[in-house]
Amino acid sequence: VEHEWRDGLTLGMVAELDLRYLLDHPSCRKWASAQLYPLSNPPPTSAVSKTVFHPKIFAHTLSALLRPLVSPHYYITHHPSLPLHMLRVQLHPPTPSPPATPLTLPQSKHIFWLAFPESTDGYVFHTLPASSAISATSLPEIIRESIAIAVSRRGIRYGIRAARMSARTLEAVAYHRGGEGDGGMLGGWSIFSGGGASVDDDVLDLLPTRAPPLPREQRGEEGKAGDEQTRKRQKIAEARFGIGAKEGDGTGLESAVFALVEQFPPPRSLPAGEHQQEEGMGEEGEEFRPKIMVRLEGSHIFAGVRSLVEQGVGFDGARLPGWLTGEAGVTTGRVKGGRVK
Fold this sequence. Notes:
The protein is of the alpha+beta class. Helices cover 25% and strands 19% of the residues. It starts with 10 loop residues before the first helix and ends with a strand. Residues 209-233 are annotated as: Disordered.
């Protein structure tokens, strides 16, 4: 921003500086995904119930909803590299007009960003605090509910709910929620978004026919049998993860937690003569559902899983569930029947 600093800054200039900092430091804020859903069936005259986002109308409606509580300032722009409408919201306490004292910047928790994808219907990305950390009457939750009201239009009302996806960068959330224009095709399905493939093609024909060659020094150390096994694992990883889940691709997720609620085979009964059962062992015929949590942490968790599959350590790529390849597009969930719910 080119300006004479001694003359002070306008709120618009502050917003431009904040955007520049956000683009230069993508991981400075934690982003989450929320989903907009219709509260009732659309009227018969409406062909589709697709959410329609007009930045200026949305900002005007949201301002009318929040005006009794706070005085918001908006900055509307478009992301320079992603198909996203960006909306920066800065909340100030209600002030008389004209203000009696000079305007000061609010706390960082009263400044947040909203991003609306152009190519994905029903999703909004935001930097608001998590729902579990705030009460239903807190300001962030009121703003969250106001987003759904501001998007609603005559005859179609929307609600908002968490979409179980959070990441340190906007690029990662947009990639896993289809905000990059690829329709959210993850895992092995990402081969269709990489170009050169259509929906009429056979998936098996699109898989790589051969794995990339090994480095020369690695070929010298491993025998022929080990070489073939490594190439086979690389081919399986390419089929399961597609073109994604690679270190340095800018779409890394740092954490994911899954709760397994599967029914496991009952543990073996104790030998005859022992009357006490071990803790956690049910009687014969009783369902055995132990509490198991799967937590993945790292700079790029699914790239790490892919690397382990290629090395043959810990994971069998052919039997790996889809929620461990990033195909489900969520970072939290309950796994039942092999699927994330």
